[in-house]
Amino acid sequence: MTTVPTSGLLRTALTLDAAMSGAMGVVLVAAAAPVAQATALPAPLLVACGLFLMPYAAVLAWCASRAALPRWLVWALAGGNLLWAVECAALPLLGLVAPNGWGIAFLAVQAAAVAIFAELYVIALRRAARLA
């Protein structure tokens, strides 16, 4: 099967991911300075992430509105979320940023959330394959 229906779990995961990504994008762009001050993460990094997340959220919302999606696209979304999770953990571990405790928590929560979305996409793909 080259497509997967966007019903049930996949639609819910896409919709929640879109809502959370969009909200985070708006917060990071609109409140970069206060978030940077609270987390000790660089404001330009926060703004760049926010500017990425807003159109990404729109793509996810569009995907959730489709009847079916190509399997490769859902795998790409899962992989992208997994990559985001790894990057959240890698930034402080590689010394690329020096967040305070709140910054570590901020990155950890993001990593956990996007890893969960990646797993939900994989579960939806496996369920669709079993039903095919």
Describe this protein's structure.
The structure is a single chain. The protein is mostly helical and 132 residues long. It has one domain. The chain is built from five helices and two strands. A two-stranded antiparallel ribbon has the order 1-2. Helix 1 runs antiparallel to helix 3, helix 2 packs across helix 3 and helix 4 runs antiparallel to helix 5. It is elongated.
Q: What are its keywords?
A:
2 strands, two-stranded antiparallel sheet, single chain, about 80% helix, about 130 residues, 5 helices, mainly alpha, about 5% strand
Structural class: mainly alpha
Helix content, binned percent: over 70%
SSE order, one letter for each helix or strand: EHHHEHH
Alpha-carbon distance between the termini? 7 Å
The radius of gyration over CA amounts to 16 Å
Major sheet summary line: 2 strands, antiparallel
Shape: elongated
Tally the beta strands.
2
Overall number of structural domains: 1
Q: Which oligomeric state applies?
A: single chain
Count of helical regions: 5
Q: Which percent band covers the strand fraction?
A: under 5%
Strand order in the largest sheet: 1-2
